[in-house]
Each structure stands twice: as C-alpha cells, then as structure tokens.
Specification:
By secondary structure, the chain is of the alpha+beta class. It starts with 9 loop residues before the first helix and ends in a 12-residue tail after the last helix.
Amino acid sequence: MSNGMAEVNAALIQRLSDIVGPGGALTEPADVEPHVVEWRDLYRGRTPLVLRPGSTEEVSRILALCNETRTPVVPQGGNTSLVGGSIPFDGNDEVVLSLSRMNRVLEIDPLNDTMLVEAGTVLANIQQAADDADRLFPLRIGSEGSCQIGGNLSTNAGGVAVLRYGNARDLVLGLEVVLADGRVWNGLRGLRKDNTGYDLKQLFVGAEGTLGVITRAVLKLYPKPKAQRTAFVAVPGVRPALDLFSLARGIAGDRLTAFELMPRIALDMVRKNVPGVTDPLQGRHPWYVLLELSAARESDMGTMAEDLLAEAMEKGLVVDATIAASERQSKALWHIREEISGAQKPEGGSIKHDISVPVSKMAEFIERADAAVAALIPGVRSVAFGHVGDGNVHYNPLQPAGADKAAFLARWQEVNDLVHGIAHDLGGSISAEHGLGRMKREEILRYKSDVEMAMMRSLKATLDPNGILNPGKTI
C-alpha cells in the first residue's frame, strides 16, 4: 500500500460512486484494466475504483471526500504517459480519477485567439475545433489522437512545434483547478497581460497532478497558416543537420516551424512495422531531417523551401531531399516521424530517455552516448531522434537483435546512469517533455540541488498537506 494509508473500503467506494452517478464509477476488473496499465506495459497497478466525473463540481466533491478520508487519488488523462505518472501503485489503496467525460470545447473566441476547453478533451479534437474556426492550436504530439489536454498541461507536453510556438506551458492563458481539499480556483482568464501577483497557473503546468487537478483551460490560438512546405531531407550526419538548422533559421526565421531529426534505423523500423510506409528517398542515408516551413500567405513563402535546400546542397549539408507536393504527401512524411515511438515496440526492449541539451551540444551528446552504451552492451541498437530546434533528443537504446528482453531491461539503471550523466555534463536535463512520474522521481535527486528540492516539497506541503494527490510521483 502507498503511504501507509488504509485500503479503500466498500462504504467509501459507495460514497464516491454516488458523487458521479450511474456510469461514472468503474469497479469491474475488465473496465478498470485500461486505467491501471501503461501503454508500453512497463507499469501496472491496482485500484478498486475508477471515477469518471462529469463536472468540476463532482471533481471538487471527490477530492474533498478523499482529503477527509486520506484516500490517495491518481489523476489520469489519456493514459499516454511515458514515465508512469498516471498509473496507480499496486497497493489497491488509490482511486483513479479519469477526466475523460469532461471532454467539451466550451467556447472559441477568434478575435481574442482563445479557446475554453474541459480537461478531458482529446488534443486532436481541440486541433480540429481550432481548424474549423480558421485558427491553429499548435501543440502536436504523436499521441494526439488519444491524449487529453489536462494531461498535456500537467506534463508540460512539448512535441514537434515547440520551435515556433513553445511547450504546453506557453500555450495556456488560464486554468480552473480543483485543489486537494476540494476548493476550486477559477483562474480562467484569457489575458496575455496580467501582472497582479504570482502566476499561479504555472504551478500546475508540469506538476503531474501532484498539486491540483486541472479541470478547464483557456488556450492560445494562432492565425492558421495559409502556406506550408514539408521537406524530407537526407543529411550525412548530425553535425551537418545542426548546420542545416542554423541555415534554415537564418533564411526562414520564425517561418521554420518544425525541424525533426531521425536516424536510418528509425526509418527502417517504421517501414518494417507500420503498414503502408515507403521510403521517401532513393538510396540509404545515415540521418534524415523532416522540416516544415509555414507562412500566413503563399506570397510569403514563394520559393523559400527550394532556395533553402539548393543552398544546403551546395554547402554539402544535404545529400537528397523531397518537398511534399500536396497535403496528402505532407501527412505521409509526418506519419513516418509520428510512428517512430510505436515502431520500436515490436523490436523488443527499449530503454527510454527524454533528454534536452543545448542545441550546440546535441551532436556531442549523441556521439558520446552511442559510444558509452555500445561499450556497455555490445550490439545495442541506438535510436536517437527528436526536436533539433529545442535540443530535445529521445534517446532510446534498443536491445541487440535476438537478445533476451528481460535481461536487457534489467540494465535500465546502468544505461540511465551513463546517458543522464552525459546529458548533465553537457548542461542538459534528464526530462525534456515527458516529466518525472515515478520513473525519474529518485533519479532527479542526483541532478537537482537541495534548495530546488526543498522548494518543490514546500509547494507540495502547502497545496496538498495530506499528500493525497498522485503520491509517489515527481517528488
């Protein structure tokens, strides 16, 4: 049992179930199962009850009762976490709070470029609602068809458009949050300037549900680009890719909206394990870049992509390239990038790392990490991909072909120590956009100062003195 708290009894289950009404409480094992297993099968827990409230008022009543009875609560969005942050422990004494029924787009204000949504709204539905209003909500991640905005904000999700638009933290103007004791803070302000004290909403962005439960959010919208170019580019190495990035920024400025790096092994795995994917280019190349340019008008775009690639080829930074001739082709190129994570799963064990380093250090990080991990585990397959523009590398050593998966994964900490140590040495972070969850809760102690950890614990003690919100996660 977590935190030494009492097991949830039948009487409490009934009281909590009464709050959400028929259909809002799940107790049958088959119904509960999807809420206690991480999608990679890395974490599995137990819970006697999954609550699916339909309103902020119900969330408030649930947390007030759980706080009174010292019942731990695990907030859960789309359950796409990669660090175990949304999975209960196996003590069967935690209640899962799923926001999936609170899934409405409540209001769109095109003139103010804002959208009011409930926390359980699926990210892809938010993107579509913005598009229908001739606006853009730019948060783009691989799980956007199932992840929910409350989870995106609670983990400060990043994705492929951070280069131009920033993380989830940069895309929210206001929040409604239910505190641990059931009180509701209404901070739903659609203001871009509000200099009236502490920016309280930012306490809850990236807090992984440990300080409060986000129930509604005011999101930033942007004018919808009317011109886009997507190019799939072969480069001879990571260092030339970084030089290409510098060249692209110099030519395109903020019209460069995405710049994604991937190795040949990633493309091979996507082609092997995802039906219908073909190689965009002739021949095999060691590294690839997927870049996107966006502009408000076609006249602002012109031949920028063609000119950029022509100059890059003259400088030896690009070996081959193709520019999507249609939206369909563009989506096909992006599909390759989006399927890299899932395509690794059939290949066996993968030790995940979500690293950020200064952009100037990215090549050195990959080179040093590849050498260190290969020396530790001969035959390991390195899959390093990610967001060049913000220095985020998803560094995933895969088990050697034919190796024992369990034996490989048993070396997780050894590999973490190597990779995280190199990232730290280069002035980086061990978590760029996935959060800490339970996977990195202890690991972070090696890299954050005592002062930082004391400040975080003080916030937790102030906002959740009984420790009921997602205990055992983050800190």
